[in-house]
Write a structure and sequence with these properties.
The protein has 465 residues and is mainly alpha-helical. The protein contains 22 helices and no strands. It has two domains: 184 residues, Growth Hormone, Chain: A (Up-down Bundle), CATH 1.20.1250; 211 residues, MFS general substrate transporter like domains (Growth Hormone, Chain: A).
Length: 465
Protein backbone atom coordinates (compact mmCIF):
# COMPACT_ATOMS: atom_id res chain seq x y z
CA UNK A 1 0.00 0.00 0.00
CA UNK A 2 3.00 2.33 0.29
CA UNK A 3 2.92 3.60 -3.30
CA UNK A 4 -0.85 3.44 -3.53
CA UNK A 5 -1.32 5.44 -0.36
CA UNK A 6 0.62 8.48 -1.61
CA UNK A 7 -2.38 9.86 -3.46
CA UNK A 8 -4.67 8.81 -0.60
CA UNK A 9 -2.54 10.92 1.72
CA UNK A 10 -2.71 13.79 -0.76
CA UNK A 11 -6.53 13.59 -0.82
CA UNK A 12 -6.56 13.50 2.99
CA UNK A 13 -4.25 16.52 3.18
CA UNK A 14 -6.51 18.50 0.85
CA UNK A 15 -9.54 17.63 3.00
CA UNK A 16 -7.94 18.40 6.39
CA UNK A 17 -7.16 21.94 5.29
CA UNK A 18 -10.84 22.40 6.20
CA UNK A 19 -10.32 21.44 9.87
CA UNK A 20 -7.19 23.65 9.86
CA UNK A 21 -9.47 26.56 8.87
CA UNK A 22 -11.92 25.44 11.53
CA UNK A 23 -9.12 25.53 14.13
CA UNK A 24 -8.14 29.07 13.10
CA UNK A 25 -11.79 30.11 13.61
CA UNK A 26 -11.83 28.68 17.15
CA UNK A 27 -8.43 30.10 18.04
CA UNK A 28 -9.06 33.53 16.53
CA UNK A 29 -11.10 34.88 19.45
CA UNK A 30 -8.49 34.19 22.15
CA UNK A 31 -5.85 36.76 21.07
CA UNK A 32 -8.39 39.11 19.46
CA UNK A 33 -10.83 39.68 22.34
CA UNK A 34 -8.25 41.35 24.65
CA UNK A 35 -7.22 43.62 21.77
CA UNK A 36 -10.80 44.59 20.88
CA UNK A 37 -11.66 45.26 24.53
CA UNK A 38 -8.96 47.96 24.47
CA UNK A 39 -9.81 49.26 20.98
CA UNK A 40 -9.55 53.03 20.41
CA UNK A 41 -12.63 52.86 18.18
CA UNK A 42 -15.73 52.95 20.44
CA UNK A 43 -17.80 51.21 17.72
CA UNK A 44 -15.47 48.20 17.82
CA UNK A 45 -14.67 48.18 21.54
CA UNK A 46 -16.12 45.08 23.25
CA UNK A 47 -17.53 45.07 26.77
CA UNK A 48 -17.63 41.85 28.82
CA UNK A 49 -20.95 40.66 27.40
CA UNK A 50 -20.00 41.46 23.80
CA UNK A 51 -16.64 39.73 24.24
CA UNK A 52 -18.43 36.62 25.48
CA UNK A 53 -20.78 36.63 22.48
CA UNK A 54 -17.88 37.23 20.07
CA UNK A 55 -16.32 34.00 21.26
CA UNK A 56 -19.42 31.84 21.62
CA UNK A 57 -21.52 32.96 18.62
CA UNK A 58 -19.35 30.75 16.40
CA UNK A 59 -20.99 27.69 18.01
CA UNK A 60 -24.45 28.85 16.93
CA UNK A 61 -23.24 29.34 13.36
CA UNK A 62 -21.61 25.91 13.49
CA UNK A 63 -24.86 24.31 14.68
CA UNK A 64 -26.62 25.80 11.64
CA UNK A 65 -23.69 24.64 9.49
CA UNK A 66 -24.13 21.10 10.80
CA UNK A 67 -27.73 21.04 9.58
CA UNK A 68 -26.76 22.54 6.21
CA UNK A 69 -23.82 20.14 5.88
CA UNK A 70 -26.07 17.14 6.52
CA UNK A 71 -28.17 18.23 3.54
CA UNK A 72 -25.26 19.13 1.24
CA UNK A 73 -23.20 15.99 1.86
CA UNK A 74 -25.99 13.75 0.53
CA UNK A 75 -27.28 16.04 -2.22
CA UNK A 76 -24.14 17.44 -3.88
CA UNK A 77 -21.51 15.04 -2.57
CA UNK A 78 -18.57 15.15 -0.20
CA UNK A 79 -16.08 16.88 -2.52
CA UNK A 80 -18.36 19.71 -3.67
CA UNK A 81 -19.60 20.31 -0.10
CA UNK A 82 -16.00 20.88 1.00
CA UNK A 83 -15.35 23.25 -1.87
CA UNK A 84 -18.55 25.19 -1.16
CA UNK A 85 -17.77 25.64 2.54
CA UNK A 86 -14.66 27.66 1.65
CA UNK A 87 -17.01 30.46 0.51
CA UNK A 88 -18.46 31.36 3.95
CA UNK A 89 -14.96 31.01 5.44
CA UNK A 90 -13.54 33.65 3.08
CA UNK A 91 -16.59 35.94 3.16
CA UNK A 92 -16.72 35.73 6.95
CA UNK A 93 -13.13 36.93 7.27
CA UNK A 94 -13.71 39.66 4.67
CA UNK A 95 -16.61 40.96 6.78
CA UNK A 96 -14.39 40.90 9.90
CA UNK A 97 -11.54 42.67 8.08
CA UNK A 98 -13.93 45.38 6.85
CA UNK A 99 -15.87 45.60 10.16
CA UNK A 100 -16.97 49.08 11.22
CA UNK A 101 -19.01 48.00 14.25
CA UNK A 102 -19.59 45.09 16.62
CA UNK A 103 -22.49 43.70 14.57
CA UNK A 104 -20.23 43.23 11.55
CA UNK A 105 -17.82 41.33 13.79
CA UNK A 106 -20.69 39.09 14.93
CA UNK A 107 -21.86 38.51 11.35
CA UNK A 108 -18.36 37.56 10.22
CA UNK A 109 -18.04 35.13 13.13
CA UNK A 110 -21.41 33.55 12.30
CA UNK A 111 -20.34 33.02 8.67
CA UNK A 112 -17.08 31.38 9.71
CA UNK A 113 -19.07 29.33 12.23
CA UNK A 114 -21.41 28.05 9.49
CA UNK A 115 -18.37 27.03 7.44
CA UNK A 116 -16.88 25.31 10.51
CA UNK A 117 -20.09 23.34 11.07
CA UNK A 118 -20.11 22.10 7.47
CA UNK A 119 -16.41 21.24 7.71
CA UNK A 120 -16.76 19.34 10.99
CA UNK A 121 -19.39 17.13 9.35
CA UNK A 122 -18.10 16.64 5.81
CA UNK A 123 -14.37 16.11 6.32
CA UNK A 124 -14.62 13.03 8.61
CA UNK A 125 -17.13 11.48 6.17
CA UNK A 126 -14.88 12.19 3.17
CA UNK A 127 -11.78 10.76 4.84
CA UNK A 128 -13.53 7.64 6.16
CA UNK A 129 -14.97 6.88 2.70
CA UNK A 130 -11.69 7.27 0.78
CA UNK A 131 -9.46 5.54 3.35
CA UNK A 132 -8.26 1.96 3.48
CA UNK A 133 -9.36 0.24 6.74
CA UNK A 134 -5.74 -0.23 7.84
CA UNK A 135 -5.05 3.53 7.93
CA UNK A 136 -8.57 4.96 8.42
CA UNK A 137 -8.04 5.56 12.14
CA UNK A 138 -4.79 7.46 11.62
CA UNK A 139 -6.16 9.55 8.75
CA UNK A 140 -9.44 10.19 10.58
CA UNK A 141 -7.55 11.40 13.65
CA UNK A 142 -5.81 13.97 11.47
CA UNK A 143 -9.09 15.92 11.50
CA UNK A 144 -8.75 16.78 15.20
CA UNK A 145 -4.97 17.15 14.81
CA UNK A 146 -5.47 19.87 12.22
CA UNK A 147 -8.14 21.57 14.36
CA UNK A 148 -5.78 21.91 17.33
CA UNK A 149 -2.93 22.89 14.98
CA UNK A 150 -5.13 25.70 13.66
CA UNK A 151 -5.96 26.82 17.21
CA UNK A 152 -2.24 26.84 18.09
CA UNK A 153 -1.43 28.70 14.85
CA UNK A 154 -3.95 31.41 15.72
CA UNK A 155 -2.52 31.71 19.24
CA UNK A 156 1.05 32.07 17.95
CA UNK A 157 0.17 34.45 15.11
CA UNK A 158 -1.96 36.50 17.50
CA UNK A 159 1.13 37.39 19.53
CA UNK A 160 2.50 39.54 16.70
CA UNK A 161 -0.42 40.27 14.31
CA UNK A 162 -3.19 42.80 14.84
CA UNK A 163 -6.75 41.43 14.60
CA UNK A 164 -7.42 42.48 10.98
CA UNK A 165 -4.15 40.99 9.71
CA UNK A 166 -4.78 37.85 11.74
CA UNK A 167 -8.12 37.52 9.92
CA UNK A 168 -6.27 37.78 6.59
CA UNK A 169 -3.92 34.97 7.65
CA UNK A 170 -6.82 32.80 8.88
CA UNK A 171 -8.52 32.99 5.46
CA UNK A 172 -5.57 31.37 3.63
CA UNK A 173 -6.14 27.65 4.52
CA UNK A 174 -9.69 27.65 3.13
CA UNK A 175 -8.49 29.21 -0.14
CA UNK A 176 -5.79 26.54 -0.47
CA UNK A 177 -8.38 23.84 0.32
CA UNK A 178 -10.62 25.09 -2.49
CA UNK A 179 -7.69 24.86 -4.91
CA UNK A 180 -6.48 21.41 -3.81
CA UNK A 181 -9.93 19.81 -3.55
CA UNK A 182 -10.69 20.74 -7.15
CA UNK A 183 -8.08 18.12 -8.18
CA UNK A 184 -9.24 15.40 -5.75
CA UNK A 185 -11.81 12.66 -6.51
CA UNK A 186 -15.29 12.28 -5.07
CA UNK A 187 -15.63 9.31 -2.71
CA UNK A 188 -16.29 5.95 -4.44
CA UNK A 189 -19.24 5.22 -2.13
CA UNK A 190 -21.07 8.41 -3.06
CA UNK A 191 -20.39 7.84 -6.76
CA UNK A 192 -21.72 4.27 -6.61
CA UNK A 193 -24.77 5.53 -4.74
CA UNK A 194 -25.33 7.87 -7.71
CA UNK A 195 -24.94 4.97 -10.20
CA UNK A 196 -21.64 6.35 -11.51
CA UNK A 197 -19.66 3.12 -11.56
CA UNK A 198 -16.99 4.13 -14.07
CA UNK A 199 -16.25 7.31 -12.09
CA UNK A 200 -16.10 5.25 -8.88
CA UNK A 201 -13.54 2.92 -10.47
CA UNK A 202 -11.50 5.96 -11.56
CA UNK A 203 -11.65 7.36 -8.01
CA UNK A 204 -10.49 4.02 -6.57
CA UNK A 205 -7.67 3.92 -9.12
CA UNK A 206 -6.53 7.37 -7.93
CA UNK A 207 -6.77 6.39 -4.24
CA UNK A 208 -5.45 2.81 -4.36
CA UNK A 209 -3.27 2.76 -7.49
CA UNK A 210 -3.79 0.90 -10.79
CA UNK A 211 -2.50 -2.43 -9.46
CA UNK A 212 -5.02 -2.75 -6.60
CA UNK A 213 -8.05 -5.01 -6.84
CA UNK A 214 -10.36 -2.20 -7.93
CA UNK A 215 -13.20 -4.43 -9.11
CA UNK A 216 -13.17 -6.44 -5.89
CA UNK A 217 -13.35 -3.36 -3.68
CA UNK A 218 -15.99 -1.84 -5.94
CA UNK A 219 -18.19 -4.95 -5.64
CA UNK A 220 -17.72 -4.94 -1.86
CA UNK A 221 -18.87 -1.31 -1.67
CA UNK A 222 -21.77 -1.98 -4.05
CA UNK A 223 -23.03 -4.74 -1.77
CA UNK A 224 -23.53 -2.19 0.98
CA UNK A 225 -24.88 0.63 -1.18
CA UNK A 226 -28.62 1.15 -0.98
CA UNK A 227 -29.88 3.46 -3.66
CA UNK A 228 -33.32 4.22 -2.22
CA UNK A 229 -33.74 7.35 -0.15
CA UNK A 230 -34.26 7.42 3.60
CA UNK A 231 -37.74 7.91 5.04
CA UNK A 232 -38.78 8.62 8.60
CA UNK A 233 -40.15 5.09 9.23
CA UNK A 234 -36.70 3.56 8.63
CA UNK A 235 -35.48 5.08 11.91
CA UNK A 236 -37.22 2.12 13.56
CA UNK A 237 -34.47 -0.01 12.04
CA UNK A 238 -31.73 -0.77 14.63
CA UNK A 239 -29.06 -0.43 11.91
CA UNK A 240 -30.05 3.26 11.68
CA UNK A 241 -31.23 4.36 15.11
CA UNK A 242 -28.57 2.54 17.17
CA UNK A 243 -25.55 4.18 15.50
CA UNK A 244 -27.42 7.51 15.54
CA UNK A 245 -27.99 7.31 19.30
CA UNK A 246 -24.39 6.20 19.82
CA UNK A 247 -23.09 9.17 17.82
CA UNK A 248 -25.34 11.73 19.54
CA UNK A 249 -24.37 10.52 23.03
CA UNK A 250 -20.66 10.57 22.08
CA UNK A 251 -21.02 14.22 21.01
CA UNK A 252 -22.95 14.98 24.22
CA UNK A 253 -20.23 13.51 26.44
CA UNK A 254 -17.45 15.22 24.48
CA UNK A 255 -18.83 18.59 25.59
CA UNK A 256 -20.25 17.90 29.08
CA UNK A 257 -16.92 16.51 30.28
CA UNK A 258 -15.95 20.18 30.54
CA UNK A 259 -13.41 20.92 27.80
CA UNK A 260 -14.79 24.36 26.92
CA UNK A 261 -15.19 25.38 30.55
CA UNK A 262 -11.62 24.35 31.39
CA UNK A 263 -10.20 26.11 28.34
CA UNK A 264 -12.25 29.23 29.10
CA UNK A 265 -10.44 29.67 32.44
CA UNK A 266 -7.03 28.46 31.29
CA UNK A 267 -5.50 31.95 31.20
CA UNK A 268 -6.94 32.73 34.65
CA UNK A 269 -5.36 29.60 36.12
CA UNK A 270 -1.96 30.31 34.55
CA UNK A 271 -1.99 33.90 35.78
CA UNK A 272 -2.83 32.72 39.29
CA UNK A 273 0.19 30.40 39.08
CA UNK A 274 2.39 33.43 38.31
CA UNK A 275 2.52 32.91 34.53
CA UNK A 276 2.53 36.60 33.63
CA UNK A 277 2.22 36.20 29.85
CA UNK A 278 -1.23 34.67 29.40
CA UNK A 279 -0.83 34.53 25.60
CA UNK A 280 2.25 32.34 25.94
CA UNK A 281 0.30 30.19 28.39
CA UNK A 282 -2.32 29.68 25.67
CA UNK A 283 0.46 28.60 23.31
CA UNK A 284 1.63 26.06 25.91
CA UNK A 285 -1.90 24.63 26.20
CA UNK A 286 -2.25 24.53 22.41
CA UNK A 287 1.10 22.75 22.08
CA UNK A 288 0.01 20.07 24.57
CA UNK A 289 -3.14 19.50 22.51
CA UNK A 290 -1.20 19.17 19.25
CA UNK A 291 1.39 16.77 20.69
CA UNK A 292 -1.08 14.36 22.28
CA UNK A 293 -3.48 14.47 19.33
CA UNK A 294 -0.53 13.54 17.09
CA UNK A 295 0.24 10.62 19.43
CA UNK A 296 -3.38 9.47 19.08
CA UNK A 297 -3.16 9.60 15.28
CA UNK A 298 -0.06 7.40 15.35
CA UNK A 299 -1.39 4.72 17.71
CA UNK A 300 -5.15 4.60 17.13
CA UNK A 301 -5.04 1.89 14.44
CA UNK A 302 -3.01 -0.34 16.79
CA UNK A 303 -4.71 0.33 20.13
CA UNK A 304 -8.27 0.73 18.86
CA UNK A 305 -10.88 3.38 19.55
CA UNK A 306 -12.32 2.09 22.84
CA UNK A 307 -8.96 1.77 24.61
CA UNK A 308 -8.18 5.42 23.92
CA UNK A 309 -11.64 6.48 25.11
CA UNK A 310 -11.06 4.54 28.36
CA UNK A 311 -7.61 6.06 28.98
CA UNK A 312 -8.83 9.53 28.05
CA UNK A 313 -11.93 9.29 30.27
CA UNK A 314 -9.93 8.13 33.30
CA UNK A 315 -7.37 10.96 32.93
CA UNK A 316 -10.13 13.56 32.47
CA UNK A 317 -12.10 12.25 35.46
CA UNK A 318 -9.03 12.48 37.70
CA UNK A 319 -7.97 15.92 36.46
CA UNK A 320 -11.43 17.50 36.82
CA UNK A 321 -11.64 16.01 40.32
CA UNK A 322 -8.30 17.69 41.07
CA UNK A 323 -9.67 20.94 39.64
CA UNK A 324 -12.56 20.70 42.08
CA UNK A 325 -10.12 20.06 44.93
CA UNK A 326 -8.09 23.11 43.88
CA UNK A 327 -11.14 25.39 43.95
CA UNK A 328 -12.30 23.85 47.24
CA UNK A 329 -8.92 24.72 48.81
CA UNK A 330 -8.59 28.17 47.24
CA UNK A 331 -12.22 29.23 47.79
CA UNK A 332 -13.30 27.66 51.09
CA UNK A 333 -16.02 30.30 51.67
CA UNK A 334 -17.39 30.53 48.16
CA UNK A 335 -20.96 29.77 49.25
CA UNK A 336 -21.07 33.17 50.98
CA UNK A 337 -20.17 35.08 47.82
CA UNK A 338 -22.80 36.72 45.65
CA UNK A 339 -20.43 36.92 42.67
CA UNK A 340 -20.07 33.61 40.79
CA UNK A 341 -17.23 34.82 38.58
CA UNK A 342 -14.24 32.52 39.06
CA UNK A 343 -11.74 35.23 38.19
CA UNK A 344 -13.24 37.59 40.81
CA UNK A 345 -13.27 34.83 43.41
CA UNK A 346 -9.68 33.82 42.77
CA UNK A 347 -8.51 37.40 43.14
CA UNK A 348 -10.51 37.92 46.33
CA UNK A 349 -9.54 34.61 47.96
CA UNK A 350 -7.52 34.51 51.15
CA UNK A 351 -3.86 35.57 50.53
CA UNK A 352 -2.73 32.41 52.29
CA UNK A 353 -3.92 30.45 49.28
CA UNK A 354 -2.59 32.83 46.63
CA UNK A 355 0.84 31.28 46.27
CA UNK A 356 2.66 28.87 44.02
CA UNK A 357 2.41 26.01 46.55
CA UNK A 358 -1.27 25.54 45.69
CA UNK A 359 -1.36 26.97 42.18
CA UNK A 360 0.73 24.11 40.83
CA UNK A 361 -2.29 21.84 41.43
CA UNK A 362 -4.39 23.86 38.97
CA UNK A 363 -1.62 23.93 36.35
CA UNK A 364 -1.03 20.16 36.63
CA UNK A 365 -4.79 19.53 36.47
CA UNK A 366 -5.09 21.71 33.37
CA UNK A 367 -2.19 19.97 31.62
CA UNK A 368 -3.53 16.52 32.49
CA UNK A 369 -7.04 17.40 31.33
CA UNK A 370 -5.93 18.82 27.97
CA UNK A 371 -3.60 15.85 27.38
CA UNK A 372 -6.33 13.37 28.31
CA UNK A 373 -8.90 15.04 26.07
CA UNK A 374 -6.46 15.09 23.14
CA UNK A 375 -5.71 11.38 23.61
CA UNK A 376 -9.28 10.20 23.20
CA UNK A 377 -12.41 12.26 23.69
CA UNK A 378 -11.15 14.98 21.36
CA UNK A 379 -10.45 13.03 18.14
CA UNK A 380 -12.16 9.64 18.64
CA UNK A 381 -15.86 10.69 18.68
CA UNK A 382 -15.40 12.52 15.36
CA UNK A 383 -13.72 9.43 13.90
CA UNK A 384 -16.37 7.03 15.20
CA UNK A 385 -19.32 9.01 13.84
CA UNK A 386 -17.65 9.01 10.42
CA UNK A 387 -17.52 5.19 10.52
CA UNK A 388 -20.74 3.89 12.07
CA UNK A 389 -23.56 5.34 9.97
CA UNK A 390 -25.05 3.46 6.99
CA UNK A 391 -24.48 5.22 3.68
CA UNK A 392 -28.07 6.32 3.10
CA UNK A 393 -28.34 7.82 6.62
CA UNK A 394 -24.83 9.29 6.77
CA UNK A 395 -25.82 12.87 5.99
CA UNK A 396 -28.79 13.25 8.34
CA UNK A 397 -27.18 11.22 11.15
CA UNK A 398 -23.90 13.14 10.97
CA UNK A 399 -25.87 16.38 10.91
CA UNK A 400 -27.72 15.40 14.10
CA UNK A 401 -24.40 14.61 15.82
CA UNK A 402 -22.75 17.88 14.75
CA UNK A 403 -25.84 19.83 15.83
CA UNK A 404 -25.73 18.12 19.25
CA UNK A 405 -22.02 18.87 19.64
CA UNK A 406 -22.28 22.58 18.87
CA UNK A 407 -25.46 23.18 20.88
CA UNK A 408 -23.84 21.53 23.91
CA UNK A 409 -20.65 23.56 23.32
CA UNK A 410 -22.75 26.74 23.35
CA UNK A 411 -24.68 25.74 26.47
CA UNK A 412 -21.66 24.64 28.50
CA UNK A 413 -19.64 27.74 27.60
CA UNK A 414 -22.45 30.29 27.96
CA UNK A 415 -24.07 28.84 31.09
CA UNK A 416 -20.87 28.02 32.96
CA UNK A 417 -21.29 31.00 35.32
CA UNK A 418 -24.80 29.86 36.23
CA UNK A 419 -23.50 26.39 37.08
CA UNK A 420 -20.88 27.96 39.36
CA UNK A 421 -23.51 30.12 41.07
CA UNK A 422 -25.73 27.09 41.68
CA UNK A 423 -23.20 24.32 42.41
CA UNK A 424 -20.09 26.36 43.42
CA UNK A 425 -16.93 26.14 41.32
CA UNK A 426 -15.65 22.94 42.94
CA UNK A 427 -19.08 21.33 42.67
CA UNK A 428 -19.20 22.18 38.97
CA UNK A 429 -15.84 20.54 38.27
CA UNK A 430 -16.80 17.50 40.31
CA UNK A 431 -19.94 17.30 38.15
CA UNK A 432 -17.68 17.28 35.09
CA UNK A 433 -15.70 14.47 36.73
CA UNK A 434 -18.94 12.50 37.22
CA UNK A 435 -19.78 12.94 33.53
CA UNK A 436 -16.30 11.64 32.66
CA UNK A 437 -17.05 8.51 34.70
CA UNK A 438 -20.41 8.11 32.95
CA UNK A 439 -18.65 8.39 29.59
CA UNK A 440 -16.52 5.38 30.56
CA UNK A 441 -19.64 3.32 31.28
CA UNK A 442 -21.22 4.36 27.99
CA UNK A 443 -18.05 3.43 26.09
CA UNK A 444 -17.92 0.01 27.69
CA UNK A 445 -21.49 -0.97 26.79
CA UNK A 446 -22.48 0.93 23.67
CA UNK A 447 -19.46 2.02 21.58
CA UNK A 448 -18.37 -0.64 19.05
CA UNK A 449 -14.70 -1.24 18.26
CA UNK A 450 -14.25 -0.28 14.60
CA UNK A 451 -10.49 -0.83 14.30
CA UNK A 452 -9.58 -2.52 11.00
CA UNK A 453 -13.23 -3.00 9.93
CA UNK A 454 -14.56 -1.91 6.55
CA UNK A 455 -17.49 0.51 6.63
CA UNK A 456 -19.69 -2.24 5.19
CA UNK A 457 -18.76 -4.64 8.03
CA UNK A 458 -19.52 -1.94 10.62
CA UNK A 459 -22.94 -1.42 9.04
CA UNK A 460 -23.56 -5.17 9.10
CA UNK A 461 -22.64 -5.26 12.82
CA UNK A 462 -25.42 -2.80 13.69
CA UNK A 463 -27.90 -4.58 11.40
CA UNK A 464 -27.29 -7.94 13.08
CA UNK A 465 -26.98 -6.79 16.68
Amino acid sequence: LRVQNKKLYLATFAAVLGPLSFGFVLGYSSPVIPELRKSNDPKLRLDSSQASWFGVIVTLGAAAGGILGGYLVDKVGRKLSLMLCSIPYVFGYIVIICAQNVWMLYFGRVLTGIASGITSLVVPVYISEVSHPRVRGMLGSCVQLMVVTGILGAYIAGITLRWRWLAVLCSFPSCIMLLFMSFMPETPRFLLNQNKRSEAIAALCFLRGPHADLEGECRQIEAGVQEEGLNIFEFKDPSIYRPLLTGVVLMFFQQVTGINAVMFYAETIFEDANFKDSRMASVVVGSIQVCFTAVTALIIDKTGRKVLLYVSGIIMALSTALFGLYFKMVLPNQNNSSNPDVWFLLKSASPAYQNISISWLAVVSLGLFVAGFALGWGPVPWLVISEIFPLKARGISSGACVLTNWIMAFMVTKEFHDFIAFLTSYGTFWLFSAFCCLSLTFTAFYVPETKGQTLEKIETYFRRS
